[in-house]
């Protein structure tokens, strides 16, 4: 606060004027903005999980190699789509159901030709059958069938989507360890490479994360933000958006 600010103080000397920040030269600590190191050097610790191998040279043309660790399937870690513990009931011809690897269902669905948004919807619902009647894809279809012109839409399904799928299905190699959940009341951090983040986002776009779709208030992830993109594919006025 500058000395020229003559806003009144309380009789006891307490300053209740609105805080307006500090000058940028203080933020930059007297350095040029491109010289400032905003973050300390990445170092793993009990409170900081690093999911790629160190040291890594920023000038290296190759992305950091993933750090291998033990996978975990519990309430303290992200339940990854590629975990062998992720299983899904599949109905058989005789009416019975069996538990099968959900990741295999994901792979089988996404490695089939997907030529438009309707086929993408069917692929996503094939490993999310519980939500076949409740998930709506109107916004997704509107984008590709009304908002984009035909070459743009065709280009996405011919070029962009196959690359996105390859990136998503590379998750077991790119994130071969456990990702701890960042919960309220704990001071922890996680460092991932851009490639790892991209693979996780690709899986979110394709709605592959397990146990993240229920609306029940006492479900395991009820206090966490949504991760699968199914609600983004819904119509804008849908009542299924979580507030």
Automatic annotation (TrEMBL):
Positions of the PARG helical domain: 149-234
Matching InterPro entries: PARG_helical, Poly_GlycHdrlase
Name the record gives this protein: PARG helical domain-containing protein
Organism expressing this protein natively: Culex pipiens pipiens
Domain of life, per lineage: Eukaryota
Pfam assignment, any one: PARG_cat_N
Lineage of the species this protein comes from: Eukaryota, Metazoa, Ecdysozoa, Arthropoda, Hexapoda
């Amino acid at each position: 606060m500058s000395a020229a600010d003559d806003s009144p103080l309380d009789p006891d000397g307490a300053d209740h004027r609105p805080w307006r920040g500090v000058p940028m030269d203080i933020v930059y600590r007297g350095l040029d903005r491109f010289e400032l190191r905003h973050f300390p050097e990445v170092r793993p610790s009990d409170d900081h999980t690093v999911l790629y191998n160190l040291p890594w040279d920023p000038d290296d043309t190759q992305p950091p190699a993933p750090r291998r660790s033990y996978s975990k399937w519990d309430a303290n870690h992200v339940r990854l789509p590629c975990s062998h513990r992720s299983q899904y009931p599949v109905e058989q011809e005789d009416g019975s159901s069996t538990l099968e690897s959900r990741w295999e269902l994901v792979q089988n669905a996404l490695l089939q030709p997907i030529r438009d948004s309707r086929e993408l919807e069917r692929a996503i619902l094939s490993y999310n059958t519980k939500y076949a009647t409740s998930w709506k894809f109107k916004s997704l279809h509107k984008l590709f069938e009304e908002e984009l012109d035909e070459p743009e839409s065709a280009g996405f399904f011919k070029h962009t989507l196959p690359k996105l799928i390859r990136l998503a299905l590379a998750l077991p190699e790119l994130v071969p360890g456990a990702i701890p959940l960042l919960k309220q009341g704990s001071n922890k951090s996680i460092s991932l490479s851009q490639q790892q983040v991209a693979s996780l986002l690709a899986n979110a776009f394709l709605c592959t994360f397990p146990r993240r779709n229920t609306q029940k208030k006492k479900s395991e992830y009820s206090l966490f933000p949504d991760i699968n993109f199914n609600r983004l594919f819904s119509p804008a006025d849908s009542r299924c958006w979580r507030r």
